[in-house]
Amino acid sequence: MPLPLKFAVIGCGAIGARHLAVLAAEPSARLVAICDTDLARCKHFSQMYGNVPYFTSHEELLRHSDAAVCNVCTPHALHAPMAIAAARAGKHVLVEKPMALSSRDAERMIAAAQGHHVRLMVVKQNRYNAAVLAATAAIREGALGPILMVQTTVLWHRPERYYSQSPWRGRADLDGGALWTQVSHFVDLMIWWCGDVVDAAATLAVRTHEIEIEDCGTAQLRFAGGAIGTILWTTCAPSRNVEGSITLVGRDGLIKIGGGYLNQIEHWDISNTPAPSTSESTDTANEYGTYQGTSSNHHRVIADVVRDVVSGNTSVVDGREGLRTVRAIERIYGNAEWCWDDGAGCSGLRRSDVAGELRGRPVRDHRTAV
Description:
By secondary structure, the protein is an alpha/beta fold. Helices cover 33% and strands 26% of the residues. The chain folds into two domains: 5-122 and 298-318, Rossmann fold, CATH 3.40.50.720; 126-294 and 340-366, Dihydrodipicolinate Reductase, domain 2. The protein has a nine-stranded mixed sheet, with helices on one face. A seven-stranded mixed sheet has the order 3-2-1-4-5-6-16, sandwiched between helices. Strand 14 and strand 15 (292-295) form a beta hairpin. Helix 4 runs parallel beside helix 5 (103-115), helix 5 (103-115) packs antiparallel against helix 11 and helix 9 (184-194) packs across helix 11.
């Protein structure tokens, strides 16, 4: 396939804008189409990137664009139908996290890509972080020995306007939950290092936001590799992201990767394996105005996608690998209880019931000042 490889971006919100900027800067890629339901947004980005053709319907884009790869950057619940449509149109697909909001949808995406002989790839940019790569190398070399425990902590800030200014964020049907939106990259890394999640329990709560999904949660996990683990996550940090960390406890060593977005090695204790020469990498956060996201290594993902499509020489995450994270989060939510603050304690409600329950309760009645 000739270079530069032709790309289209479907969905031009915060993360879609990031994809557009990265594609414009990547010499082996060429942006040939954009799509968003907001006409003004389409016109804005079209002009910004040299009058690129634009569409307000992904069906129209798929019919008329000669893009080889479609980057799906829409609200979460739209990932599966749009990725399947792109695959059926003969386009390779790069889908943002989360790959889908159910394993059934993820499996349908994989089947569509296989059936139409195209590649299905998932954005997992934190796998490219320098600190993450150093830990991965140590694990693969056996320096940690068997991993005994893993702990993830995500203490992030999302202001109320992050949810209120968007028609889909915070909604149970379109967003799905903070594990999908804020924590899925961390879950991916835990699985990458420790194996699939084979058992899970969790507690969820809404504390400070007017939303249908959790803004606080804890989970206890067991992994196929034998490790046990925990996740503590929140979007209630009052003014900024405080921590995004993973701690690995092995029989022969301990590593903690932290900082705001997994860019610092905060602790490295492995006998006969020195710590990397720098404790902090050049990886930075994606900036979205009022908040920060995870690392900005999308340029490495795009370069890997080009190599994958052109030569098959790549480490890009494919659909089968992405499915592992979907199954893990689905298992966590499926075994979660909701904790109310109106005297009802923790209920046995599952994900299928909780959106209606939250709509049925006065929101302020199940909160507490934290």
